[in-house]
């Protein structure tokens, strides 16, 4: 089974949440998504005035797959990766920026939102969120000792006869 | 066999060439590629000071496939297509903009080139190139009459006995 690279929950989740909230109110973007490189949504926020977001799961998958696909293009031009991708349509913009090596911050906003402001604010948010994600990835994994596995085996034997 | 959507040659080719040349000298970009939606290079230019371009054929293929792949994402956000895509790396930028429905103008430039200038100049070039491409696509196709096909058949019969 494919699992997210990062488990974002509890205190860390709430801190990330606050940073995304702040980014939304500072820039005026519609939707904001933190996605891991495999396409899982780690966290998301919608502006209060922006009803009916698109299917964010699908957007996340497509954004992650697109980021992976453009890696070949980046290498060809001598870049390690494209840290920033901007897709501009008639009515709005999809803005994707790398958060460390593991995640992507995706913003969706209307064409009247100034791109410059979004860029500046996003840089700040990314520095903060990247620090939180780094913390998480450095936390020791939960290890289940021998005791636990023996106890679980005994319990299963008991249950299944 | 896959064939380019557009055949750019002769007078039209030279006019496009001049426009690309002008774009290069006005903006300071390294490489400039006109690619059709299937990934064929229709025309390309390199700045004199920019030696060793990357494999432009491969870049063209990847740019076209990427543009097609992001169409799903555009539709999901209610856009017809993303008319402008910017991929920013550490050292440089890959800038792709639609030229009508059939072609893509791709620019590769270093990070010291101001994006704003590139955008303004590109808009101008695209209007001019799009007009030329439209002219071509509206030209009547060369039709070979009955005479030609009879003549060719006779010639073949003659040749092959």
From TrEMBL, chains A, B:
Pfam families: Robl_LC7. InterPro entries: LAMTOR2-like, Roadblock/LAMTOR2_dom. Residues 16-109 form the Roadblock/LAMTOR2 domain. SUPFAM superfamilies: Roadblock/LC7 domain. Gene3D superfamilies: Dynein light chain 2a, cytoplasmic. SMART domains: Robl_LC7. This is Roadblock/LC7 domain-containing protein. It comes from Deinococcus lacus.
